[in-house]
């Protein structure tokens, strides 16, 4: 379903977007300004971490296997090198002054931005996880078809879109991003907490759609507030792209860790309760994908149904814990005198140019454009 709508959006943007002059975008100066080492270490650190958790959780490799240990070691070393390199670039030694850091270490020293970044990381954990495990639950526990299982998460996705719009509207006249972030975190905790009522295998209540909507509204408000907050706090326009990129990366990384955690929880339940009922081949298939249970015999499907329901309840408890921590972190974004919205348009035109050669006016310059982008 995404392909036709995505194609329409791409064609519309390609043909109707105003023509812009981008100076020196493919110049040598723009090329040497790319932070290749930072990009490589960031990719390796997050990629190998998710690989290790996912592969070990699905029992493709054992936790103590050389593959998993090597992946975790590479991830740890890459994280260290990434932080060291970005701090080193921040000092701007003369030979490195042309390189644009991929991660805004300077902004990380600001309490409000750090809180917004961490809230985004923790938001991605339950949001992306629920986008997967709720349809899975409808297929495995409620015996729904694939298409209908996806339809059942529309309340969450629709509320997320509404929240993204409301987040911009709330800060259209005054910088209320910190308050929005706190409220969004509380809504997510409330929504996930209410979902904990769905503990029994046959618990299929209409109220769960309201729970999804509450959670989705919090997610949308959180994403939009973090986007606007980042645009306001970026001290220079050259920092804006990397600052927004860090927020987007945090969202995806949190989601990957969340999905990996759900895989670990489900497989631990499978090993504990189904090991004596399934063959090694069936166990291996189930470790890789819970949906393979739909190909088992009816009696075995009933067993997997009960196990998946129990695992789902435990996954929700973990998400409640994550959302609780998120609420606490969001409180650190509060300011007595938040930065004014005028900072979005306070930069002189020349400052819009970064050494990446991005002199495009496509960067967000007012709140309304931000609202359209989230």
UniProtKB/TrEMBL annotation:
GO MF annotation terms: transmembrane transporter activity
A GO cellular component annotation in the UniProt record: plasma membrane
Major site of localization recorded for this protein: membrane
SUPFAM superfamilies, A to Z: MFS general substrate transporter (SSF103473)
Region (Disordered): 352-374
Domain of life: Eukaryota
Membrane topology annotation: Multi-pass membrane protein
Name of protein: Uncharacterized protein
Source lineage: Eukaryota, Fungi, Dikarya, Ascomycota, Pezizomycotina
């Amino acid at each position: 379903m995404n392909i036709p709508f995505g194609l329409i959006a791409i064609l519309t943007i390609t043909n109707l977007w105003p023509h812009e002059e981008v100076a020196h975008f493919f110049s040598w100066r723009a090329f040497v300004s790319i932070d290749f080492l930072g990009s490589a270490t960031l990719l390796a650190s997050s990629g190998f971490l998710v690989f290790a958790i996912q592969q070990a959780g699905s029992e493709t490799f054992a936790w103590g296997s050389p593959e998993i240990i090597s992946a975790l070691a590479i991830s740890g070393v890459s994280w260290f090198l990434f932080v060291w390199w970005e701090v080193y670039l921040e000092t701007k030694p003369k030979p490195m002054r042309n390189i644009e850091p991929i991660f805004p270490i300077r902004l990380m020293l600001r309490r409000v931005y750090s809180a917004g970044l961490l809230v985004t990381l923790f938001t991605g954990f339950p949001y992306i996880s629920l986008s997967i495990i709720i349809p899975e639950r409808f297929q495995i526990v409620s015996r729904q078809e694939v298409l209908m299982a996806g339809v059942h998460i529309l309340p969450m996705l629709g509320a997320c879109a509404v929240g993204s719009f409301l987040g911009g509207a709330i800060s259209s006249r005054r910088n209320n991003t910190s308050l929005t972030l706190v409220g969004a975190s509380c809504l997510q905790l409330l929504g996930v907490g209410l979902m904990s009522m769905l503990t029994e295998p046959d618990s299929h209540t209409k109220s769960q759609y309201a729970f999804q909507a509450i959670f989705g509204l919090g997610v949308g408000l959180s994403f939009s507030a973090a986007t606007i907050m980042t645009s306001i706090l970026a001290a220079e326009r050259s920092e804006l792209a990397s600052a927004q990129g860090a927020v987007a990366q945090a969202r995806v990384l949190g989601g990957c860790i969340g999905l990996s955690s759900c895989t670990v929880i489900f497989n631990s339940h499978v090993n504990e309760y189904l090991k004596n009922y399934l063959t090694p081949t069936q166990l291996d298939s189930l470790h890789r994908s819970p949906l393979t249970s739909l190909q088992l015999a009816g009696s075995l499907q009933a067993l997997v149904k009960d196990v998946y329901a129990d695992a789902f309840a435990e996954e929700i408890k973990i998400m409640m814990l994550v959302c609780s921590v998120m609420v606490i972190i969001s409180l650190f974004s509060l300011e007595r005198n938040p930065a004014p919205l005028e900072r979005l348009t306070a930069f002189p035109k020349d400052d819009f140019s970064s050494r990446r050669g991005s002199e495009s006016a496509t960067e967000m310059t007012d709140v309304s454009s931000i609202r359209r982008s989230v």
